[in-house]
Amino acid sequence: MKLRRQKHAKKNMGFYKHNFDFREPFQVLLDGTFCQAALRNKIQIREQLPGYLDGATQLCTTRCVLKELESLGKALYGAKLIAQRFQVRNCSHHKDPVSGSACLLSMIEEGNPHHFFIATQDQDLANKVKKKAGVPLLFIIQNTMVLDKPSPKSLAFVQKLQTDQLVPEHQKQSIVQLKEKEGLAKQAGEKRRKRKRAGGPNPLSCLKKKKKTQEGQEPSAEKKKRRKRKRNRVKAEAVQSVQKNEEE
């Protein structure tokens, strides 16, 4: 199972390295929920995460996350001690701190330019992160850290990017124009075919052919009758000649 998880993590990391230019050291933004889950499951984040991501990491958080943990009191005191060991990244909420989830979302705005990972157990935050392209998501299941597979948003972004690279903008416009012309040509062709089908075959031509056939049959029947009458006449003349000879 461990090898399988490691294989999936390597595959997912390859996706972000290749398509979103993630490089070591990987910057991982952690919130209080992730720190609390790591404490509860006895996970040594600093020691275990570099091995799982197969690269050097920088664990970091924000002032808003630390303020939130302080406000929650003794219940999350252990998580606060863990978070305080990490580097603190500057956010835009110096005077008016916001919730940890809102702060982390603000850190990955505008396409996640600093290439942050988000490590959280907050399902609502995780769903919002998945709606942004190019943001790897880490969470803990039982006693194991897991790198989530690329979100549909990230996959769609990469597919569009690859299509744009394969087809330059001027070629796209040419393709659109050609499709429009092709559509008009098809419509005109359909109209011409419809007019041709509407005419249909000439029914009189069939009747004429039948009439010719009948006319062609009549002379042959008439000839047979004539030949029959001729044979009968020849026979009659022969009989008369024989009778005349006998009388003489």
Task: Please describe the structure with a list of short key phrases separated by commas or semicolons.
alpha/beta, Rossmann fold, 6-stranded mixed beta sheet, 10 helices, 248 residues
Task: Describe this protein's structure.
With 248 residues, the protein is α/β, with parallel strands linked by helices. The chain has a domain at 1-9 and 29-154: 3-Layer(aba) Sandwich (Rossmann fold), CATH 3.40.50. Helix content is 65%, strand content 11%. It contains ten helices and six strands. It has helices at residues 2-20, 32-40, 45-53, 63-71, 77-83, 100-107, 123-130, 152-166, 169-199, 203-247, and strands at residues 26-30, 57-62, 87-89, 116-119, 137-141, 144-147. It has a six-stranded mixed beta sheet with strand order 3-2-1-4-5-6, with helices on both faces. Helix 2 crosses helix 5, helix 4 packs antiparallel against helix 5 (77-83) and helix 4 packs antiparallel against helix 6 (100-107). It starts with a helix and ends with a helix. The model is unreliable at 212-216 (pLDDT under 50). InterPro entries: Fcf1/UTP23 (IPR006984), PIN-like_dom_sf (IPR029060), UTP23_sensor (IPR057776). Belongs to the UTP23/FCF1 family. UTP23 subfamily. Residues 179-190 have a biased composition (Basic and acidic residues). Keywords: Nucleus, Ribosome biogenesis, rRNA processing.
